[in-house]
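Loading example: each entry is read as two labelled lines plus one structure line.
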Amino acid sequence: MPETSLSSWNDGRARSAIVDFVARVTKEGGKDYVPPAERIATFDNDGTLWNEHPMLVQGFFLADRIKQLAAKDPSITGRQPFKAFLEHDFKTLQSLGKQGLAELVFTTHAGMSEEEFADIGRAWFGSAKHPKYGCPFTQVAFKPQLELLAYLRENGFKMYIVTGGGVDFVRLISEQAYGIPREQVIGSSVKLRVEMKDGRPMLMKTAELGSFDDREAKVQNIGLHIGRRPILAFGNSDGDLAMLRYVRSGPGARLALLLHHDDAEREAAYDREFVLSPLAEALDKAAEYGITVVSVKRDWKAVFG
Amino acid sequence: MPETSLSSWNDGRARSAIVDFVARVTKEGGKDYVPPAERIATFDNDGTLWNEHPMLVQGFFLADRIKQLAAKDPSITGRQPFKAFLEHDFKTLQSLGKQGLAELVFTTHAGMSEEEFADIGRAWFGSAKHPKYGCPFTQVAFKPQLELLAYLRENGFKMYIVTGGGVDFVRLISEQAYGIPREQVIGSSVKLRVEMKDGRPMLMKTAELGSFDDREAKVQNIGLHIGRRPILAFGNSDGDLAMLRYVRSGPGARLALLLHHDDAEREAAYDREFVLSPLAEALDKAAEYGITVVSVKRDWKAVFG
C-alpha cells in the first residue's frame, strides 16, 4: 500500500476509518481482502465532491441559460420560476427542490443533440465564475475529496459518481475535476431519441424524464450500470441514504461515509433545513446504520484547493 | 504499437481494416490520433462474440430453468412456450424472437434478488454443456474475437458489450469469457426494486421491462451508460445496425464491422431467414453505410478455441 496522501484530512476517527478500511481490503491473504475488480466506490457529487450551498452548480448554469433565453424571449422574465433565476433569488429556487431544478434543466435543453448540449456546457464551464467563491466552477471541488479519490485510485479502486444532477452535465467535468471517466458517471437523465440529420444518426435529448437519480433510484441505477454492490460509498444527504445502506450491508468489509457540512466559517453549515439537499434521517441514524460521519469542521484541514 | 496477435484472422480486407484503423488512432501526432480515454469500442454479444445458432446461450439457460420449474409445477409442461423449451423445439422457440425470449427470462426470474439470480446463473455456467458443441457455454466464444479484444486492449481501448441479452446474465461471464468487467456490459434489463430483508437493502428483479437493448435502443443506452460516441463497433445483425451507423458517422477515424455467418461447415450459415437475429438491411447496405463485412468463411482461420 502506498503512503497515504490524505494531507488535508485531520487525524481522527473518519481518517482512521478510511485508512484502516483500505488497508484491510488491499491486504493480500487477509480475511477482508477484496480483489481489485471488486473495489468499486460510489460518490455522490453535489455537496459530497463539490460545493452545493447556497446553490447547486447546475442551478447557476441554469440561471445563465435562462438569461440567454430571456434575451431572445423577454416574455419569460416576469414568470416564475424564471424570474427567481434572473434575480438569483436562492430562497425561491431552493424551494423547487433538486428534482424541480433537474426537470427545469431537462425542459430547457429538450430537442438538443448531446453534442450541442456538450458545447454549451463546456463553454459555460470555461468562462463562468462562482458568485460566492469567484473561481471557475470546477474549483469548488473539495480538496480532501480529491485527495481521497487519488488515494483510492492508487489502491486499485474504480470510482463512480452517482449524482442527482444531470448525468451529461457532470460528465462534462468529471475527468478534468475528479479524474473520473465520463462513462463512470451515473446521474439523472432524460430519455434520448435517435434522429437522422444529414444521414448521420444523432442522439437527441427529449423532455421526458428517464430517471431522477435520488434515494432508492441511486441503488437501482447502481444495479443497472455497475451490476455489483460497491464496497465504499460517500454521500452527504438523505438522498444518499439508500446507497449508503446498500453498500454498507454487503458481506465483508464495507465503508459508508456521510459528509456533514458544519463549518459556516470555511464553507457553510446546513443539514435538515436545506430544502435542496436535506440531511436528517441519515445523520440521526448514522450510528445505527454503521455510517461514519465526516465533519467538515473537525475532519478537514482545508476545504478548497 | 505492439505486434498484432490476430493469428486466427486470415490476411485480407477485414484484417487490414482493423490493423490500419488501430495504427491510425494510436499514432501520436498523426491526424487521426485518438487519446486513450476516447478509445471506446462496443461489441454486440450473441452472434458477434459467441455462437447464437441454432439457439441463444440464454435460450438454453431458460430451457434448463423451465425444466426445474416444471419439476415443481408439472402443469406448465403442456403449455406453450414452455413445451417448446422442454422439447428443444428450436423452430417454435426461434419464432418467439429475441425480445420474446428476453421477456420470458424476465418473467421467470421476477421476484429474485440480484444475488439469487447470480447464484443460479453461475451454477448453470459451471455445469451445463452446449448440446451441439459439447463444451461449457463460455467456450462457444469465437477465437478470432477473443484475439481482437486482446489486441484492442493492448492498444488502449476500453471495450463495452452492448447486448440484446439480459444484462445480468451476460455480466456473469463477461470477465471470465472476454476479460470485460461486468460494469462494461450494457444489455436488456428489467426494472429493479429496493427491498429490505432482515434490515438489509436488496435489489430485487421485477417483471417490468426496463429496456430491450436492440436497434435504436442500443444507441440510446450507449448515450445513457457511456456518454460518448464509440470509435469502433462490431455487430452481426440488423439489431446492431443503428449502433454501427452511429459509431461510423462520428467525426474522425471510425470503424464499423459486421460479422456474416456464412460457414455451415465450421459453424453455421444464416442471415435474413434467422428470426432470432435477422441480418438483411445491414448486409445489403454495408457498402453505402461504410460498414466492413467480416466473413467467417473467408476471414477467420479458426472459429472456436
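The longest strand of chain A covers residues 185-197.
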